[in-house]
Design the sequence.
């Protein structure tokens, strides 16, 4: 996630590395080593991503032994499909703009100010990012729908309007901006801006000419990530938008799962794939574009107590935004989970331990245990795959490798239903007959976790001074030993953070899991969705209680990450 | 060993480890394999059976039953069709009359006449020459109403499709998107059956003018918008009429603590569309024998009696006793609307398309 940082540390890191002086032999050996490191991630993505997705797409376009590319223009010619494309694009643009507008002040406040509860709050604003959309949709409906807070205060209802979608998108992606931009902001040396002020620049001019250019790539990177997430939005649009609104991702789901119109779904998947590829390409370009090597300082030395009325007001405004936009929806869920049949209490939570309900073959509370187990395995896979990929990418990258870098991000932008259906028709023969195996769930979750691991590890690995490794080698250490003695101590914390974030993302993953989770082992988000799918007070209440538990588990793991957040070279998450 | 080799070796070893891990996973689970001691039932999320009833069958037949719930009804059928060459299980349960033709046309099932099918009520039997499917349950998609609302307003709840278009019920009804939700589609098909090919669109124009609200799924309609359900009450739902099932009132009673004496909701019996669910032996079932035994079980007395309180649907077997909860709080729908699966198959897509542009745009 911390894309800006990647760019910056790469720039500084490279200067330190005496590349030109390296003997040729070392280089080719490095290249081979990189290939070795890349072999496993490449195999993983080929097998569990490229193969299933290609299979389901060609099932749609390859009919009776012939390719039907004519379908592409045919489908794109339909007015309702064009309407979907148009809506998908403009709502993503609007969501991105709104998110930047709301979150940039937040990024500044979290970067530059020190205030009590900051760590907890940083963790809390990240919770939405890893919450499943079923849960968020329910919370927002409770808030913006009929009888919600807005309705009660001013008689305003926003459900089934585009505003509900936009606000929920801000809720989801607030943390992306705060962490990506704020992470860098907190390490920019404020003395540079002060120097400009000293030389007579106005406050605004100093900010515009000194800070803004330095932040530019980070802002662009964050914006592109938000655009990517909102462009492929599924649950939010489905639940809050009502049937009149549909994004590409929703339409792919509808065409595949409901109508079994595979050709149309295949065309839409290709369109989305192309769009996501384009976004990632622009993103990679932004990340690579180096304005200047930035002088970074320790974040803790920069942040200080707000001073003066202006700064306190800003802090207050940001806190109010966070309270209304993030804490309130989360609070509604919690409130409903305790609002039991006989007044406030733990009635719904107690009910979770009984198997009587019939929504599952097991008491719903077991979903917590299942989720934790799946998430641990998914995290292990994501850390191995992502770690190897990051290690491969650390070495000076050629075009091919940079392409690989972007490739690792693709699972974030490809529809879960496509991956799920792809799994169904490809991983069905020995030796890879995995369809009914439990490992499928962690595999699907790891696909989403890997990009986060890579993003977290990469900047740290790149910042490790190559000379240290060389010194160790000169002193006779084997590469493995050099890695253990030099690299590992420096990346251990980043590794923990990467693992923690992959864990939280795996816990919340819903889209792909819902296709493959087994009924006797539902995950938390799947259990919530199932409970919401049944009539009756107890089922509804249990759904709220489970959502709250999921929220708390996510918050706790993120809070632990805050604790081990470390020096400046560490990736954000 | 050189560096390169070592790194490559490590990488390959990790890769092999992962594959081995995956392989273990698949052998652990054991479902869908050629193991003749187990039989796999593929179904949708709503499938449920009492533990002891299933255990009794397992003991009697000697098969261990794996249940694979595969998403909502539509998605489960589509997945089964996609994977029919190498199916995930032996028996599929949960294809209903709105999707039956799609399943049959795609050759999902093979012939087998379940033992005891002669006991199934004749009105549910289809495909009698080939016996590719066995009817298992039936349910009615009907408008439910919030009893309290109509009592307080001293207004009689609606009884028929015609009533729903009356001005006195303006802005009261919420239904589901017919394109994405099975009760939504059922309601559309109900109106198509009631008003015919030429009339249903006119009826929906009237409904739209009368303020019908359309939401995407049943969850939202029932748990958020409908004022009569427990969830809807909490969410301050303001629509006292919702498209749901004839069995929803008993569910409201069963899942309330303490259980009320009377269901808080009622059913408008003149607005019902009958849904019938079928099961069949999958074309390439690995355990055909076990699958046949499982089908006999689904059509048998024990399962038919157990089903109502687990899936909230009605048994199709003659003389099956309904649970008290159903007879007390449920309703019997005497004249539900029905449509032949063939008619549905022929018109489904075009009706959904016209409905979408008529009601949603």
Sequence:
């Amino acid at each position: 996630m911390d894309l800006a940082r990647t760019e910056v540390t790469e720039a500084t890191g490279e200067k330190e590395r005496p590349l030109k002086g390296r003997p040729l032999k070392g280089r080719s050996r490095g290249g081979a080593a990189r290939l070795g490191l890349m072999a496993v991630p490449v195999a993983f993505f080929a097998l569990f991503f490229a193969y299933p997705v290609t299979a389901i797409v060609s099932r749609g376009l390859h009919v009776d032994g012939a390719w039907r590319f004519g379908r592409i223009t045919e489908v794109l010619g339909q007015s309702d499909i064009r309407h979907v494309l148009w809506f998908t694009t403009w709502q993503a643009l609007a969501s991105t703009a709104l998110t930047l507008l709301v979150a940039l002040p937040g990024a500044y406040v979290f970067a530059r100010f020190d205030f009590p509860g900051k760590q907890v709050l940083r963790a809390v604003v990240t919770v939405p990012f890893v919450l499943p959309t079923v849960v968020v949709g329910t919370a927002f409906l409770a808030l913006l729908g009929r009888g919600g807070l807005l309705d009660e205060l001013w008689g305003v209802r926003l459900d089934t309007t585009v505003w509900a979608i936009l606000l929920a998108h801000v809720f989801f992606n607030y943390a992306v901006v705060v962490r990506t931009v704020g992470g860098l902001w907190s390490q920019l040396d404020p003395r540079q801006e002060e120097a400009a002020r000293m030389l007579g620049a106005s406050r605004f001019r100093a900010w515009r000419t000194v800070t803004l250019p330095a932040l530019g790539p980070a802002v662009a990177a964050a914006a592109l990530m938000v655009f990517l997430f909102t462009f492929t939005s599924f649950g939010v649009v489905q639940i809050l938008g009502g049937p009149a609104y549909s994004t590409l991702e929703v339409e792919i789901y509808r065409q595949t799962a409901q109508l079994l119109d595979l050709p149309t779904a295949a065309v839409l998947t290709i369109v989305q794939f192309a769009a996501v590829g384009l976004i990632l390409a622009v993103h990679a370009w932004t990340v690579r574009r180096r304005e200047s090597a930035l002088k970074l300082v320790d974040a803790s030395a920069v942040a200080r107590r707000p001073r003066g009325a202006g700064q306190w007001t800003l802090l207050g405004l940001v806190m109010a935004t966070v309270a209304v936009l993030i804490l309130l929806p989360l609070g509604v869920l919690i409130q409903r989970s305790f609002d039991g049949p006989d007044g406030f209490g733990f009635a719904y939570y107690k009910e979770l331990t009984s198997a009587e309900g019939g929504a599952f073959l097991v008491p719903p509370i077991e979903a917590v245990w299942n989720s934790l187990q799946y998430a641990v395995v998914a995290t292990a896979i994501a850390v191995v795959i992502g770690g190897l990929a990051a290690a491969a990418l650390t070495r000076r990258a050629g075009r091919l490798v940079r392409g690989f870098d972007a490739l690792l991000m693709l699972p974030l932008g490809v529809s879960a239903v496509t991956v799920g259906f792809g799994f169904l028709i490809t991983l069905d023969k020995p030796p890879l007959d995995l369809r009914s195996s439990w490992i499928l769930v962690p595999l699907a979750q790891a696909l989403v976790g890997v990009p986060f691991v890579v993003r977290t590890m990469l900047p740290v690995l790149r910042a490790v001074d190559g000379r240290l490794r060389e010194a160790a080698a000169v002193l006779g250490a084997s590469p493995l030993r050099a890695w253990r003695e030099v690299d590992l101590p420096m990346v251990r914390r980043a590794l923990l953070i990467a693992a923690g974030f992959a864990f939280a993302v795996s816990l919340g993953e819903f889209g792909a899991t819902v296709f493959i989770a087994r009924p006797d082992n539902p995950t938390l988000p799947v259990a919530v969705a199932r409970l919401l799918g049944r009539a009756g007070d107890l089922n509804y209440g249990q759904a709220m209680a489970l959502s709250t538990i999921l929220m708390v588990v996510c918050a706790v793991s993120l809070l632990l990450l805050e604790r081990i957040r470390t020096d400046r070279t560490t990736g954000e998450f | 060993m050189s560096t390169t080799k070592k790194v490559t070796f490590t990488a390959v070893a990790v890769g092999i480890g992962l594959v081995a891990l995956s392989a273990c996973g698949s052998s652990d689970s054991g479902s869908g394999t050629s193991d003749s001691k187990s039989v796999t039932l593929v179904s949708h999320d709503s499938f449920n059976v009492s533990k002891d009833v299933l255990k009794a069958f397992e003991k009697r037949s000697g098969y261990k039953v794996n249940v694979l719930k595969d998403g909502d009804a539509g998605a489960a059928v589509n997945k089964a069709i996609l994977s029919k060459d190498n199916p995930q299980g032996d028996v599929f349960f949960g294809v209903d009359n709105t999707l039956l033709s799609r399943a049959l046309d795609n050759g999902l099932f093979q012939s087998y006449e379940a033992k005891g099918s002669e006991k199934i009520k004749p009105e549910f039997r289809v495909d009698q020459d080939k016996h590719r499917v066995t009817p298992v349950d039936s349910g009615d998609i009907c408008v439910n109403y919030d009893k309290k609302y109509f009592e307080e307003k001293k207004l009689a709840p609606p009884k028929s499709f015609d009533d729903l278009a009356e001005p006195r019920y303006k802005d009261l009804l919420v239904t589901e998107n017919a394109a994405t939700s099975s009760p939504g589609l059922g309601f559309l098909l109900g109106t198509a059956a009631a008003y015919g090919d030429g009339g249903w669109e006119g009826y929906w124009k009237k409904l739209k003018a009368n303020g019908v609200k359309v939401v995407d799924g049943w969850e939202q309609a029932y748990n958020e918008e409908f004022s009569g359900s427990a969830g809807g009450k909490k969410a301050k739902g303001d629509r006292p009429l919702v498209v749901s099932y004839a069995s929803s009132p008993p569910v409201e009673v069963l899942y309330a603590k303490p259980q009320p004496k009377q269901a808080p909701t009622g059913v408008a019996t003149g607005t019902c569309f009958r849904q019938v669910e079928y099961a069949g032996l999958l074309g390439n079932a690995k355990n055909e024998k076990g699958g046949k035994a499982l089908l006999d079980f689904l059509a048998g007395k024990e399962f038919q009696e157990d089903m109502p309180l687990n899936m909230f649907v009605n048994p199709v077997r003659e003389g099956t006793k309904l649970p008290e909860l159903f007879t007390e709080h449920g309703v019997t729908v005497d004249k539900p609307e029905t449509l032949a699966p063939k008619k549905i198959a022929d018109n489904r897509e075009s009706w959904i398309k016209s409905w979408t542009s008529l009601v949603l745009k």
